[in-house]
Amino acid sequence: xxxxxxxxxxxxxxxxxxxxGKLQLARARKLRTNSTEAEQRLWYFLRAHRFxxxxxxxxxxxxxYIVDFVCLQPKLIIELDGGQHANQIRYDQQRxxxxxxxxxxxxxxxxxxxxxxxxxxxxxxxxxxxxxxxxPSPASGRGALSFQAEE
Length: 151
Prior knowledge:
The chain is 38% helix and 17% strand. It has helices spanning 20-33, 37-46, 89-101, 111-116, 118-132, and strands spanning 57-62, 65-71, 76-81, 105-110. It has a four-stranded mixed sheet with strand order 1-2-3-4, with helices on both faces. The protein starts with 19 loop residues before the first helix and ends in a 19-residue tail after the last helix.
């Protein structure tokens, strides 16, 4: 006997029967379309495996949250904060606590830092990735920066 009942996804994954997943995907698309100048600048360096040969995604859903940038291989999240984050400190703390419980490391930068100190931001990201990753093989070429920020 074949069971034709469709299994519903777990509500914890953000795609429950109420359609929250579709709303979240639409919100993530809107955030990608309306990215800030700082997000655009950082994305230039992170996209298309340009940064250390790693794949980054932007405005990616993780659980019920949407993160600015994520590299799933070392489980690193990068968040860019503008002035609105001064008014939502408690929300950001709860969000970060949940993301950390999923074994993600979170780096936060102010938009102004990305725009005025791009190379320093990229160096901090690189340092964190190297700290999270097992030692790369010299033959793989990983671990060497393949870009220079234009400032």
